């Protein structure tokens, strides 16, 4: 999972950043998850958290080269990856439209849906806001 969700995107950034810089700049869009900020009993969220941190570092590193690094956070989107999950899912076309709007607006971070927005908002509160099960202990 770390190869796919952290080291792969880093390799893509390292390959394309020099090309973008040589052409006067551009943008990289990193697809994150609401789980970038929320742990579950699996390794997946830790990979998304690591990727979020990596994106922040790339943003700082590449800004001087006129490269916009956008972190897009979205939750359940109707793709083959989660086809078997019985949960409400966003239309991928809607998510792409939100990301492009953020990109055109010069945003560095795009929160694409209510689930991701809710998780991020709870980061500034007590841990029990993110993990209600901790309040029972």
Could you describe the 3D structure shown?
The protein has 137 residues and is α/β, with parallel strands linked by helices. It has helices spanning 2-22, 44-62, 92-105, 114-122, 127-130, and strands at residues 26-33, 67-74, 109-111. It has a three-stranded parallel β-sheet, sandwiched between helices. Helix 3 (92-105) links the parallel strand 2 (67-74) and strand 3 (109-111). The longest helix is centred in the first third of the chain and has 21 residues, at 2-22. It is globular, with a radius of gyration of 16 Å.
Characteristics:
137 residues; alpha/beta; three-stranded parallel sheet; 14% strand
Q: What structural class is derived from the secondary structure elements?
A: alpha/beta
Strand order of the largest sheet: 1-2-3
Number of helices: 5
Structural Rg? 16 Å
A few lines on this structure:
This protein is an alpha/beta fold and 137 residues long.
What's the topology here?
Elements: H1 2-22, E1 26-33, H2 44-62, E2 67-74, H3 92-105, E3 109-111, H4 114-122, H5 127-130
Helix pairs in contact: 1-2
